[in-house]
Amino acid sequence: MAEIADSGGGGHKGGKKRAKKQSTRIDMTPMVDLAFLLLTFFVLTATFSKPKSMELTFPDPNIIPEEQTKIKKGVTFLLTKDDKILYYEGEFRDKDDDKGKMTVLQELSFSRDAKNSLRAYVLKNSEEMHTKILALKKQFEADQMPDTTYKRKVREVKADKESFTYLIKTDDKATYKNVIDVIDELNYNAVGKYVMVDLIKPEFDMLIAKVGQ
Length: 213
Fold this sequence. Notes:
Helices cover 36% and strands 17% of the residues. α3 runs antiparallel to α4. The chain has a domain of 147 residues. The chain is an alpha/beta fold. The radius of gyration is 34 Å and the shape is elongated.
């Protein structure tokens, strides 16, 4: 609050009455109290930033790498230089045999506008899973099942043996950004089964033959 303080009495000089000088003093106590109240409010209501992390699943190190390629309901992504992403479905074969023909690598694009975009490909593979999850969501929103049951059934749908399993493999020329982009697309499409796996030599040889050194 402001106070007006007198500077002292004025006397007479030459028969004239001298005006009293006045000074203004501002009391800052209410302002300080307000500042501390605002500071306390923001400290109590602020949301502190949390470190961002991404969960990655790695296979059992005791599993032979060649055995990791024998997934019938699987898709393997091979990431390499120049933002290239190639893939093949099912088991890997470096030559024709009595079980099937030699694996042929197909190419996808990170661009969402491309006809062979990664997002469109994963979305197509996940269509049946999305239909089941959407049906569960409608039941949940209609109060036909509790929250815990809904989450459990969604996890079961994602982990169903009929759902695709995605293997992500990279060579030494691939970038971390491309790996993160692939995982983001899988998470966007609610894919529940994906894992980081090392390249085997036959895959690497086929990759080099496809894209060059």
